[in-house]
């Protein structure tokens, strides 16, 4: 993709008085985010193999640990956004987050080079030592540092870039921002593809030291690129965060819980923000309306009568309605959690494809951790086809602008997620049957020990890519449509929170399934010897959970009515 002459003219249409910000800052910011994603995403696909082979951790424990790592990375994005908006500002948060990520990757890299930081290798009798508490602490500390870095960089980097280009005086400002977001997300897609292919291939071909060293070096370049542009950036100071406003509404509502809502005389008793586009209260969650009731004008408002003297006792109508809007979208948002959980089954898929024939050509073998490439490329291709071909065709024949409704797309995504899990279960059942027929099921599966092509896994990755394209993008559009414009920057944080919850839920399910199925000395469904276990049963369980989630989604659509 090349920048057209029109786009370049638009981007450069900035007042000459501007000495900071603008297009000259974009290489530093986008390089920081792109290299951070290549480095961190490149560590994830093969991490389950590293934990099992180097740290002698069981498959279920390793998968649970990686789910918790994913949940922490996404959950800390809320903390990063809060700290950025309320205290430190975006530049400081992105810079410190980049340094945290670099430190974590260096420590993780050291575990491949310093023998004392990892358990000794298994002996000839397959007796393996568990990691000591100190060794495990170092490993978890590296994960934690990387998670903090990701949580600080990802939610703030895109907004920091927007700060450099956003100029309300420019008549082309909207077009500039649209072009920026398109390029930003395009680079993220490309970085994900590079991470799941090139970085994973290097780990398989050259070992852990080089495979983990390259992400650390890329992260070093990421930090250097971002800091080298420091003198060019517009650095917006921190202000009050939406999170703070939500807590203020809750606290004020509790403080005024004994007030009678019917004792006032209409809107005159509610605190209005003069610059707000929201001036009327809705009937939902009426208990929160108490937060903006003016009890004593002399005490509750400042001398100008426009601002609350104590924002923890008196809130504006806009603050109350913003919180209500958030609460109204929670049910629909929660239906996405199961889809995200289905998308994050890479650990078991990697173990499965390791045992299969992964050759595309006789001289090239696809790394086991790179099969998520098919999901990412499906996502990118479908978005392009849908946006550039299907939407215009639909508009031409129906006369209605735009494509399918966000809610309909979310529903299609849920169905595709269910189908993907069912197909995963069927494929694994076939793989396991062949593995038992061709090998001793008591032996630990060897690489390429099953005479079955791993390309049979591609259809389930395609379905997952389509499920993500329909459900995730539909959810984001739904949130943008349902939330006030003042909360548009909050949409990414809400979506990221769903990914964090899915990680926690995934870890919980893995631990429960492993404990229940191995109770009384039985073989766990999620055994490290996947030929003895039953990953297919686990996938059927996830398919059932997806069916229940789809029924839950239909109930939401049936009873979710606007005010």
Automatic annotation (TrEMBL):
It is a multi-pass membrane protein. The chain crosses the membrane at residues 59-79, 91-114, 134-162, 183-202, 208-227, 366-386, 407-426, 492-513, 537-557. One of its GO terms (cellular component) is membrane. It is found in: Membrane. Keywords: Membrane, Transmembrane, Transmembrane helix. One of its GO terms (biological process) is oligopeptide transport. Pfam families: PTR2. GO terms for molecular function: transmembrane transporter activity. Gene3D superfamilies: MFS general substrate transporter like domains. InterPro entries: MFS_trans_sf (IPR036259), POT_fam (IPR000109), PTR2_symporter_CS (IPR018456). Belongs to the major facilitator superfamily. Phosphate:H(+) symporter (TC 2.A.1.9) family. PANTHER family: OLIGOPEPTIDE TRANSPORTER-RELATED. This is Protein NRT1/ PTR FAMILY 1.2. It comes from Capsicum baccatum (Peruvian pepper).
């Amino acid at each position: 993709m090349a920048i057209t002459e029109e786009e370049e003219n638009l981007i450069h249409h900035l007042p000459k008085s501007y000495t900071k910000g603008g297009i000259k800052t974009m290489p530093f910011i986008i390089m920081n985010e792109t290299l951070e994603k290549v480095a961190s995403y490149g560590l994830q696909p093969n991490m389950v193999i590293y934990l099992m082979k180097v740290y002698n951790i069981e498959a279920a424990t390793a998968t649970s640990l990686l789910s918790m790592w994913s949940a922490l990375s996404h959950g800390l994005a809320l903390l990063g956004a809060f700290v950025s908006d309320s205290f430190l500002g975006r530049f400081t948060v992105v810079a410190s987050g980049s340094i945290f990520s670099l430190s974590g990757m260096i420590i993780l890299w050291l575990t491949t080079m310093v023998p004392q930081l990892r358990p000794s290798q298994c002996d000839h009798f397959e007796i393996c030592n568990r990691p000591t508490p100190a060794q495990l602490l170092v490993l978890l500390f590296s994960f934690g540092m990387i998670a903090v870095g990701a949580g600080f960089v990802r939610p703030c980097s895109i907004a920091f870039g927007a700060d450099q280009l956003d100029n309300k005086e420019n008549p082309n400002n909207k077009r500039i921002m649209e072009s920026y977001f398109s390029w930003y997300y395009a680079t993220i897609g490309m970085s994900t593809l590079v991470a799941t292919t090139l970085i994973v291939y290097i780990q398989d071909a050259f070992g852990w030291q080089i495979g983990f060293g390259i992400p650390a070096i890329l992260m070093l370049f990421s930090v250097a690129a971002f800091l080298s542009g420091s003198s060019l950036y517009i650095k917006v100071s921190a202000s009050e965060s939406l999170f703070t406003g939500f807590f203020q509404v809750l606290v004020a509502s509790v403080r005024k819980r004994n007030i009678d809502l019917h004792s006032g005389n209409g809107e005159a008793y509610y605190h209005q923000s003069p610059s707000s586009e929201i001036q009327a209260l809705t009937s939902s969650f009426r208990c929160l309306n108490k937060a903006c009731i003016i009890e004593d004008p002399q005490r509750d408002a400042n001398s100008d009568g426009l601002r609350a003297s104590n924002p923890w006792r008196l809130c504006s109508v806009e603050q109350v309605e913003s919180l209500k809007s958030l609460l109204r979208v929670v049910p629909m948002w929660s239906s996405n959690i199961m889809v995200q959980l289905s998308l994050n089954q890479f650990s078991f898929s990697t173990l499965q494809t390791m045992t299969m024939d992964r050759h595309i050509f006789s001289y090239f073998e696809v790394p086991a951790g790179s099969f998520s490439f098919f999901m990412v490329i499906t996502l990118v291709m479908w978005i392009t086809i849908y946006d550039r071909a299907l939407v215009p065709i639909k508009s031409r024949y129906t006369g209605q602008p735009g494509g399918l409704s966000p809610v309909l797309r979310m529903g299609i995504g849920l169905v595709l997620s269910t189908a993907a899990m069912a197909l995963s279960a069927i494929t694994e059942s076939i793989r396991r049957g062949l593995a038992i027929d061709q090998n001793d099921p008591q032996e630990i599966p060897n690489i390429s020990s099953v005479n079955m092509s791993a390309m049979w896994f591609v259809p389930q990755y395609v379905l997952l890519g389509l499920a993500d394209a329909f459900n995730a993008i539909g959810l984001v559009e739904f949130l943008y449509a349902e939330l006030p414009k003042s909360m548009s920057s909050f949409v990414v944080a809400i979506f990221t929170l769903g990914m964090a919850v899915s990680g926690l839920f995934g870890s919980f399910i893995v631990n429960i399934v492993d404990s229940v199925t191995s109770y009384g000395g039985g073989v766990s469904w999620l055994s490290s010897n996947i030929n003895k276990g039953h990953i297919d049963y686990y996938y059927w369980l996830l398919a059932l959970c997806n069916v229940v989630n789809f029924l839950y989604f239909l109930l939401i659509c049936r009873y979710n009515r606007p005010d």
